[in-house]
Amino acid sequence: ECEGPPAPGVLASRVPPGAWPDLEWEDPFPGGWTTIDVTTRGIAPGAGDVSAALQSLIDGLSGPTILTFPPGTFELHSPVEMRGELILRGAGSDATQFSLVGTSRAFTWEGVGGQWAWPWIEPEYGPREIQADVPVDGDTIPLADTAGLHPGDVVMVAEAIENPSFPSAKYARGGIFALTAVTPTSVTLDLPLTVGLHRVNALGEATVVSKLRPIGNGGIEHVRIVSPTLTGYDMRGVLDLYLADNVFLRDITSVDSFGADVRISNSRRVLVTDCFFDQTQGSAPDGGESIWIDQLVTRTAVVNNILREKHPPLVVQVGGNLVVYAYNFHVDRLADYCHATGDPNCRDLDWIRDPEVNGIARGWHGLADVVFHGNFPHHYLIEGNVFYNAVFDYHHFEQGPGNTIFRNRILGNPDNLTWWMNGYGIWLDGPHDGQNLVGNLLLHDSIITYQLHNATEEPEDMFVAANTLSGTLQWGDLPAGSELPPSLYRSCPPPFWTDDLPWPPFGPDVPGSETNRIPAQVRYETLVAGGP
Q1: Is the dihedral of CA 522, 527, 529, 532 positive or negative?
Q2: What are the start-end ranges of the E strands in 258-369?
Q3: pTM of the model as a whole
Q4: What per-residue confidence (pLDDT) applies to 232?
Q5: What is the CATH number of domain 114-213?
Q6: What's residue 58's pLDDT?
Q7: What is the residue extent of each domain of the chain?
Q8: How many Cα atoms within 13 Å fall on the side-chain side of residue 91?
Q9: Cis link prior to 504 (omega < 30° from 0)?
Q10: Would you identify the CATH topology of the domain 9-110+215-521?
Q11: What is the 3 state secondary structure string of 285-317?
């Protein structure tokens, strides 16, 4: 157990109060779960489509329940809708397999509330206008009426941005919070706001609070999901979470996804950990994301995962905040090959796309691994990962402030890969003000650049410090010799860390940063030993 939150030290003025909150799944019913072996309810491996039978079983459950699945293959011909207080547990990600047939989605969480429900839902779930501006770091919101709201309720706090790139991206300031206190004229949130709220925005649109009814207090673990070959594009995920709260996705292998492996929207406290997201059928902008974090997602963590040949592995957009993406290991065998050999075939798009021709992997390369995709995602922490490059793009206009890329090993885009971003490590295209790039190791002579592409203005209020580029430590916005905190969300190593690995693994003060390994890398090397 860590003793208290991390101390941000020299970065205190650039990060949220207390830095980023750590996240563990909270068991609300310790010792109170009923366990059911699905084979006792007529759901057996090798028996064809079990989606209807499994949905019927889930719909008939009451109380906290764990459904266990033995080794074998279960077919799903349609997605299964999860309920609250439910855990699905396989016999292992190498033993229990869900094979999708004719569908790109396996399991969905769909709560009730939010902007799409306002026209028809009961009044207590409707929008309530805030009565005054709320400053950054504030946690108390004045309302004219709090009838129907209670401590423990989950709410959406939503301010409209002035230039959303599409209608559903309108509400991008705020987040998803639990209420810790309710008075007749105010509510108190469980976390302070990372950006201030205006009572009305510049267009005269009111900022609102609305009650939600999320699905949660459960999760899925120890399974393998294999997607079918499909055509077109699905905007949702193999595991699709909308209005979810306190959900874990643990030790899941997802193979050859059609859309995203995991899509999270309008949710809080989602933990994705110990997973292997392996390859994709698509390439952005036509699919291929692994982790897609969407509107107003708050206090969520994606940690200790392997992401192999996902295009791109991570996309964040539309106002999500206080999200931790940490100690994940990205693998791109084509990029590794091109780095190592300088093969001119790496400039041939047909060669890159066809694994039968290149003998390595399928891909559309030159895209970023970590993509900030606009409509105001803010205060994300990208810490301790191994990845190839990051881009703050301008496809959907500005990112919000406070996104922090900290102590990562960044391999860079190979110079000889086709298309774009050749040699880039971190790229900001546009006025994405207030970002933090600190303590990273950039290899293969990759660069940090503000090269304009879709935008016409460069970012301001950047904090770029203690990064190592081309073997040279550049202190930038910090005095030389400044002491960096080991982490911005932990005051001690995370629970999956092993004593033989240095922590923190990377940074200007860490010997061996070029070759140090993280647990996800060790796991990957063990999984593929002697294999592809």
Answers
A1: negative
A2: 260-265, 268-273, 276-280, 291-293, 298-303, 306-308, 314-316, 321-326, 329-331
A3: 0.97
A4: 66
A5: 2.40.30
A6: 99
A7: 9-110+215-521, 114-213
A8: 13
A9: yes
A10: Pectate Lyase C-like (2.160.20)
A11: CCCCCCEEECCCCEEEEEECCEEECCCCCEEEC
